[in-house]
Structures are given as structure tokens and as C-alpha cells.
Amino acid sequence: EGVVYAEVRRPCRVMILVNPQSGRGQALQLFTGHVQGMLTQAAVPYTLVITEHQNHARELVRKADLSQCDALVIMSGDGLLFEVINGLMEREDWQEAIQTPLGILPGGSGNALAASVHHYSQSPPAWNEELLLSCGFMLCKGLVASMDLVSIHLASRQRLFSFLSLAWGFVADVDIESEKYRHVGAIRFLMGTLVRLASLRVYQGRLAYLPVREAPKLPKGSIKTNQPPSTPQHPLLCSSLPCRLIPNTSPNQNSRHNHNSTNSNHNTITNSSNNAITTKNPEMQSDGKTRAPEDSLLPGLDQPVPESWTVVKEEGFVLVLAIYQSHLAEGLWTAPGAMADDGVIHLFYVTAGISRPALLRLFLAMEKGGHLECGCPHLVYEKVKALRLEPVSPQGMITVDGEMVEYGPVQAQIHPGLARLICG
Ligand code: ADP
Ligand code: MG
Fold first, then answer.
1. 304 Cα: distance to centroid of ligand 1 (angstroms)
2. What is the pLDDT of residue 271?
């Protein structure tokens, strides 16, 4: 019995979830062909789970005995990780569960997190099998760093957790419409972009955000203080010190979780005269217990935004994109300064009036992260901690991490370092 115990207590037991339908439908073959041998050589014990339908992974993770699991790894596109993160956050023990290190192996057609993690490791760009090998190698090394999550509120009072993006307009349209070209792999986004360019649309809506207050710049000649450098660093060197996969020392606090909803959906984006968020806290339940974790920056969706927020003057948009990883897809380096745990939502929007060639130029420049240097007056970039988007156009698409969500008013706020990510 002692031997068995030693065997099952081996470090780093990994649950690998494979979506056989993701990408070109070859995720399982890619796993057995490229990753399995690597894990065997590195003596990483794992359990393989093949998903059978949408939300299978979400339900499984919601109920799983996580004490038997040192890491959750997704071999699919970003959509399956979105399921897993939301499954973890729906648990009563969410606070502990979300500390489970999460890994990604690119098997989908949209592999934004894999491309981002590879980028954070300061490696030159990689695609397809090369990217898969890179991520497989990181899994074997087992370095873990923290990752921000963004809490998203929809009009129906549903609340989601997101690790990648919130998109409306052009980007969301391309993401969803290009699903039908899934069989071509990552190229689907280029094809979708070209198709959408031909039928370019302007969406009416209102946008507001809480900007990140940058530390004031020191005047020239002033004495230098011991400030940390503002240039991007490797995530492992950042505030959240990396640790090996093996010790799972998470706070063991059981918090109650509930999907209760209160207020109505009506909302307008205007600054309230009162700076304080005085509305009933949507996270606070009648028994006084808090649902995880509290969104302290967000008023109710039916309340005006606080005075500290910036309300965007323009109301005609080609796209609004909030992204919190560096890459929107393989080959799309959208947020050049972004890191997994920088505590920032990188908000981009493109206002109405941009020409088709100018928009195409932006997307082409994005491969090398050069779109902000295009001098395009329609492209705006802000670092924010929270935002609210209120579409006025009656029809359109909103995506969270590449998955379509209900269309309507939506608001979001960052939760720095809430999750943990295998990277390195
Ligand atoms: P891709 O990048 O190819 O879109 P994703 O990981 O985003 O890959 O998965 C696409 C969708 O497939 C997600 O909504 C996910 O929930 C769903 N899904 C997961 N497992 C299965 C399955 N076995 N069959 C069908 N759909 C699935
Ligand atoms: Mg997807």
C-alpha cells in the first residue's frame, strides 16, 4: 500500500482536457503525436480527458476533486479554457480552486493564450506544431506565475470570468463568422477579416472606462528613486514570484457562491455627480455573505458610471476590444506591452470613418505589434481597470474569450493575479 501511495503522490499530477473537435479536429492526434512522449520522458503523470460536448469540461471541473490534481491543462483553443475557468469560479471553494495552475496546449483554431504564453517566454514567434512543442516544453518545466482574470457582467445579470478578451464589432464578427472556416486552422481569422472588410459596419454605442493612473513622471534632473522599471519584464520576474508546480499552497477559505441576481437591466453611460459607488452591491447577498470575488470598481449596470471614469465622446465604432494577454491569435500581437499579470485591461477601439485600407493596414501591422505606430487617428488605446460598453445598434455580436455571449450592455473589471498560469 505504501508503494501505491508513493506512486499516486508523485508530484505534478496533471489533468489534460482535450477537445477532439477543436481546430481542424486533430487535437487528439496532435497530443499523441507531439506531447505524450514529451510528458513520458519528463515523468509527468497525467490523466487524459476527452471532452464529449460543449460545457463538458465546465461541468467536470465544477465537480472534480481538485486535491488529486496539481494542474489543469487544456489541449484545444481558448474556448475550452474559458469553460474551465468558469467551472472553477462556480465552485463553492472557488478561492482555492482558481489557484490550480492552468496550462494551455494549442489544439484549436484560436490559440491566443498559447501564442501569448510563448511570447512571454521571450521566444521568437512560432506557429502550429512549433508552438505546440514550446507549450509542451513549458508544461514539462512546470513554472507557474499569476494571471489576471476579468469579471464580466451581462445585462441578464450573468457573470463570467475571462482571461483573454471582450470584443464588440469587427473583432467579434470575425471571430464568430470565421468559425465556419475552422477546418483551415488559424488562417480562418485572416479569411474572416477580409470577408468582413468587404462589408465593413459601424456600430453605435457608448463606451466608458476607468483609466489606470500612471505614476507621475519625474521632472528632468530630479533624484532617481528606487522605482521598478516601467518597461515590460518577463512575467516570472514580476511581483508575483514564480514557483514550481509541486507545492500547491493556496489559501483554504471557503466562500459562499451564488448566482442570485438583483437589479434591472436598464442602464445609461453618464457620469454620476456622486463619485462614490452607492448602489446595492450586486455581490452582496441577503444573508450578508459575498459571492466571489467582489467587483469593487463596478456600480450596478443600471447606475451611471462614477465620476472618476472617462466617457468616450464618439458613439460610432468599428470595433471595441478589451484584451488582457499580448496576443489575440497566433500572429496577432495586439497588446504589445501586455503581460499575464500586469493588472491592466488593454482597451482598443476604432472609431467610425476609418477606411478599409487603413483598417487592413492596422491588422497587417499587428503581426509585429506595430499597429499603434501606424499613425491612424481612428485607433485609440487606453490602459484601464474597468469599462462599460452599451451597444445602441440593435444587432451585433459580443464575444468573451472568443465565445459569443448575449448582446447588450456589458461591464468588466480586472482582478489582478486571481488565477495561476503555467508559463516560462
Ligand atoms: P477552437 O479554437 O477550434 O474554436 P475551442 O477550444 O475554442 O477551439 O472550442 C470551440 C468550442 O467547442 C468551445 O465552445 C467548446 O466549449 C466546445 N467544445 C468542447 N468540447 C467539445 C466537443 N467534444 N464537441 C463539440 N464542442 C466542444
Ligand atoms: Mg474558439
1. 37
2. 54
Phi, psi of 41 (to 5 degrees): -60, -40
Q: Mean pLDDT lowest for which of 118-127, 241-250, 259-268, 346-355?
A: 259-268
Among 17, 80, 82, 176, name the best residue to mutate to test ligand 1's pocket (greatest count of ligand atoms within 8 A of Cβ).
80
Return the pLDDT at 261: 36
**Using CA of residue 69, residue 71, residue 76, residue 77, what is the dihedral sign?**
positive
All three cell numbers of 74, joined, read 487544456
Q: Which residues line ligand 1 (CB under 6 A)?
A: 19-23, 51-54, 56, 76-80, 83, 108-110, 182, 402-403
User: Does 175 qualify as catalytic in the annotation?
Assistant: no
In order of their start, the domains of the chain are 2-148 (3.40.50.10330), 159-213+305-416 (2.60.200.40)
What pLDDT score was predicted for residue 187? Answer: 85
Q: Which of 65, 70, 78, 302 is catalytic?
A: 78
ipTM: 0.98
Number of C-beta neighbours around residue 190 at 10 A? 18
**Per-residue b or e along 102-114, where b marks 16 or more CB atoms closer than 10 Å to that residue's CB:** bbbbbbbbbbbbb
